[in-house]
Amino acid sequence: MKKLLFVQILAWAVFAAGAQAQSLSPQVVASGGGYAQAGGYSLSYTVGEPVTATLASGSNILTQGFHQPDFQSIVKLLAKVYLEGAYNGAGMNTTLATLPAFPLAQPYNTAPWNYTGTEQVASLPANVVDWLFVELRDATFTPVSGGKRAVFLLSDGTLRDVDGTPGASFTGAVPGNYYVIMRHRNHLAVMSASQIGLPNATAYDFTTTAAQAFGPAQQKSLAGGAFGMYAGELDANGVFSVADFNFYAVTGSQTNVYNDADANLDKQVTVADFNLYQPNASVIGITQVRY
Predict the structure, then answer these.
(1) How many H-runs (helices) and E-runs (strands) does the chain carry?
(2) Do the Cβ atoms of 87 and 103 come closer than 8 Å?
(3) What span, in angstroms and rounded, lies between the C-alpha atoms of 195 and 179?
(4) Is 8 helix (H, G, I), strand (E, B) or coil?
(5) Can you list the residues of the chain whose pLDDT is less than 50?
(6) What is the DSSP string of 145-191?
(7) Cα end-to-end span (Å), the chain
(8) Are 41 and 17 a contacting pair, CB within 8 Å?
């Protein structure tokens, strides 16, 4: 009877998670439990009674007991974006990733982002340009629960999650339509021109036209007919101003550094970074990306 009851509860929870996009939190005092993830869902469960029977079939095991399920959806975003500073006419340079000081943990845990995510890796994947910070917004441009993620940007403009899979995985966000914001340490953030249905099987491509970004003139025309995020927005507040120049000026010339003043991502802070900032100095980001 207990086995049948558990199966019924589990089936109901799966239906509720998929059909109603809800997350159920454990509300019991447990003597045991566990966690599993498959496809687009994760499952945390608790056991509140002594084990009396275990059923096994292949790699699947079901243990009798009082289980309280906690389902979380995992929403995947596939996207492509270029950074003006790293762009080389066909893709982006990966010079920065050769630094011993290249961070293995996400670098957006300081102002103005103040992101508390724990994304990190033991080693870098191939073709890394830099870390990127991605946000989801709802139809009113309001940030959504579970809608922030730091991922790697690869030389072809695609995203790579820290778990090694393509795209960005948002744990806790539910499937739906979202505006997507792409942020980088020293480039002007952009937001998708329209809501994107997530998870998406085809990448949203910011690089094909300036109109892929919300608002007028929010991407720069690059060589070869591509478009990318404006370089030199060094304080990352969403507006090019004299504050960005001041950020560059007080940094001074540096070599072999991972520094926000390095707008072209070549490991150096030189006049080349100022030359990227200067023609972009009057550009203003849309309200939704400003801090």
Answers:
(1) 3, 18
(2) no
(3) 4
(4) helix
(5) 1-29, 58-59, 70
(6) EEEEEEEEEETTSBEE-TTS-BSEEEES--SEEEEEEEEETTEEEEE
(7) 56
(8) yes
What backbone torsions phi and psi does residue 51 show, to the nearest 5 degrees? -65, 130
pTM above 0.70, yes or no: yes
Q: Which domains does the chain have, with CATH numbers?
A: 2-73 (no CATH), 78-289 (2.60.40.4130)
CA 28 to mean position of chain CA atoms:
33
The Cα–Cα gap between 262 and 279 comes to 16
Q: Which phi-psi region, left, alpha or beta, contains residue 114 (left: φ > 0; alpha: ψ -120 to 50)? A: left
The phi-psi region of residue 10 (left if phi > 0; otherwise alpha if psi is between -120 and 50; otherwise beta) is alpha
Phi-psi category of residue 31: left, alpha or beta, with phi > 0 → left and psi -120 to 50 → alpha: alpha
Model confidence pLDDT, tens digit, residues 184-228:
999 999 999 999 999 999 999 999 999 999 999 999 999 999 999
Give the pLDDT confidence of 53-92 residue by residue, as tens digits.
Answer: 656 554 455 655 555 554 557 899 999 999 999 999 999 9
